[in-house]
Amino acid sequence: xxxxxxxxxxxxxxxxxxxxxxxxxxxxxxxxxxxxxxxxxxxxxxxxxxxxxxxxxxxxxxxxxxxxxxxxxxxxxxxxxxxxxxxxxxxxxxxxxxxxxxxxxxxxxxxxxxxxxxxxxxxxxxxxxxxxxxxxxxxxxxxxxxxxxxxxxxxxxxxxxxxxxxxxxxxxxxxxxxxxxxxxxxxxxxxxxxxxxxxxxxxxxxxxxxxxxxxxxxxxxxxxxxxxxxxxxxxxxxxxxxxxxxxxxxxxxxxxxxxxxxxxxxxxxxxxxxxxxxxxxxxxxxxxxxxxxxxxxxxxxxxxxxxxxxxxxxxxxxxxxxxxxxxxxxxxxxx
Length: 335
Ligand code: AHG
Ligand code: MN
Ligand code: MN
Known about the structure:
An 8-stranded mixed beta sheet has the order 4-3-5-6-7-8-9-10, sandwiched between helices. The chain folds into 2 domains: 196 residues, Fructose-1,6-Bisphosphatase, Chain A, domain 1 (2-Layer Sandwich), CATH 3.30.540.10; 125 residues, D-Maltodextrin-Binding Protein, domain 2 (3-Layer(aba) Sandwich). Helices cover 29% and strands 22% of the residues. By secondary structure, the protein is of the alpha+beta class. 46% of the residues are buried. It is built from 8 helices and 15 strands. Bound molecules: 2,5-anhydro-1,6-di-O-phosphono-D-glucitol and manganese (II) ion (MN) (2 copies). One manganese (II) ion binds next to strand 5. The site of 2,5-anhydro-1,6-di-O-phosphono-D-glucitol has 13 residues, from strand 5 and helix 6.
């Protein structure tokens, strides 16, 4: 049946005209992410066979042990984008600082910066559970032709030009948005081609799945505790069912298809929350809004937060609109 589906390449070509004054630069950028995704997918698929599971021995700037696949995926995505000369700057969860691309070439015209979580859900690598990649794209705000600065990366999420994720799961998917809805593509590994399998993805307005690491329950803010109890009450369509993979991209993906809410609140252990605003929350919030869902820090819209640091963390509540509204109600009532 695959021949009935459009390929990602065809989709990108057809939709290029949707961007005003396009030079094809964004299309080429998505193409280079598609290529790196296939390479990383190939490596993830044989993870148990080659010596690529386990810790790499280093700790990233946020104090987290880097896995070998974290480092591999980081290098692949960054190298692909640098080799194709398609961006002016990159920042990654696995890098201490942002990377200036092409600063020596006075004529370079690249206008996009990429922010990336190269391997999301790393704790799942060694046990053959889905992991992902999350990316976010902005137009630079400093002048074209000059080296990028931190300001180019510290933009509010609402200024994203595109965002997406790849899931290396039972099948490998690339899901992304350029601000005209969300589309999902499934990789046919036999021929290495992504096909449009999930056009116009949308969160159901309501759902019955809640996804949260309940091991941290005792440390959660009162509003979240009360909301979790609400999810568990026997009333109307409740109790909701609980599903938590521990890979944001995969938890988000399931909830978008089935209807649900994902929460990573603050706790004593993670007083700012755990998830990173630039590499995880903003791209997912952009996709959520493009898919008729909602993303909040418990009180306000994620996409309105003005970042102050590259590795900033933030509490994150995201999913079906009515569910996120309800969680916000509890936060307000019990704060
Ligand atoms: P990463 O592997 O990029 O560090 O991200 C892991 C994130 C997110 O994907 C996941 O939902 C969450 O951390 C899991 O955290 P807990 O293990 O604390 O539940
Ligand atoms: Mn992550
Ligand atoms: Mn990661």
